[in-house]
Amino acid sequence: MTDVSAGAGAEARQETIRGGQIAAAVLGNALEFYDFTTYALFAVQIGNVFFPFHDSFTKLMASLLTFGVGFVARPVGAVVLGAFGDRAGRRPAMLVSFMLMGLGILGLVLIPPYAVIGPAAPVLLVVCRLVQGFALGGEVGPTTAFLIEAAPAKRRAFIGSWQSASQAVASLFGATIGLLMTQALTHAQLEAFGWRIAFGLGAVVLPFGLMLRRSLPETLHRPEAASALHPTDHGALSHARPILLGLAMIMSFTTSTYVLLYMTTYATQTLHIAIKDSFGPSVANGFSGIVFALLGGFMADRFGRKPVMITARTILLLVTFPAFWLIVRNHDAATLTLATGILSACSSTSVGVALVALTESLRKDVRSTGLAVVYAIGVTVFGGAAQPLITEVIKRTGDAMAPAWYLMAAAAVGIVAMSFLKETHPERIEGARALIETA
């Protein structure tokens, strides 16, 4: 009786420690994505502060393109920090990426406006974006690898889905801060210092996130059971199938992520909704993202990865057109907020599961690098281009439905890629192996 109780106690302690590890990793990831979310929300104000153009559209495009510059450095950060995570460990790579992100955020808060230092202002802005992009490029691979390796096999999808949920936490927190500021500050105050306060709030918690990450154990050297999914050969070339399919999947969900982040700018610039009402969609996006990313992970642990992510992405494809049709027709904040919440729910249910499935498809010795590089390339090419491209298409065509067409095309590509990816649910893999051995 005593032995059983001791064993149960040890298991409970291990589960508690593991939960703390997940919380530390998730907090760091959320803090880093908070910066990118805040920039997207305050793109108009940043354009007015740092770019001297007279035309408001040109200022917005310059701001969005600078936002996109951050994505250019992502593949470099993915290669450097992702490989570092596979050699030195997940924790050292996460610490380096977190410190670099902190430098980028502080720099962005402290850069004087164009009216004070002239052309040096946009140059420094670009430098900060490059540093942040480099850091985020090397963040996703080691963090997701850590989450998967630290999680029990039966809860791996749920715990791994916190990678996506943490981004939604950042989106919700950033949108809430933006909403509160638009209610409390005038337009001039928001442009003069309001957006700096929003970024500064992220910088305040950086020391706490750094301390939490330093307390994380290392999972790189933990033993891991061999999987029938993984090739026997080492190296990236042996993973060509999951890498190519993963690239298409990431293209699909990063497009939906950045289209939904664009809704605040879309509300003010295309629908001409008052700025104080334009942050509601981002709040709905963040809230739905948290709830449905975790729900998707929970269901994927029960029913398998592929059924959950394919079903959710198919529903997203079907509801996108009617959602945007109502948004354009009604031109009001309530419809925009409700539709954004529904679209976010459909998208978020599959995003975390897709990341988990892709991570499980890679061998441990290339997991951090492979995921980081594939994610960085997909986000750079498709996520970074989403907002400037949609803005330009709307400007040239006058079609307010442009985000819908972009979102639907990306969803269709994702469904095809998910269909060809092998199921990675541990019990289903073992069941398939047993059937083969029996035959």
Using the CA coordinates, give the radius of gyration.
Answer: 22 Å
- The run of helices and strands is HHHHHHHHHHHHHHHHHHHH
| Domain tally | 1
Strand tally: 0
Strand proportion, as a percent range, falls in: under 5%
Sum up the overall morphology in one term.
globular
- In the CATH scheme, the class would be Mainly Alpha
Overview of the molecule:
The protein has 439 residues and is mainly alpha-helical. It has a single domain (15-215, 236-438), classed as Growth Hormone, Chain: A (Up-down Bundle). It has 20 helices and no strands. It has helices spanning 2-41, 43-50, 56-72, 74-87, 90-110, 114-117, 120-137, 140-150, 156-160, 162-184, 187-204, 206-214, 240-261, 263-269, 280-303, 305-330, 333-360, 367-397, 402-420, 426-438.
SSE topology sketch:
Blueprint: H1 2-41, H2 43-50, H3 56-72, H4 74-87, H5 90-110, H6 114-117, H7 120-137, H8 140-150, H9 156-160, H10 162-184, H11 187-204, H12 206-214, H13 240-261, H14 263-269, H15 280-303, H16 305-330, H17 333-360, H18 367-397, H19 402-420, H20 426-438
Give the gist of this structure.
This protein is mainly alpha-helical and 439 residues long. The chain is 82% helix and 0% strand. It has one domain (15-215, 236-438): Up-down Bundle (Growth Hormone, Chain: A), CATH 1.20.1250.
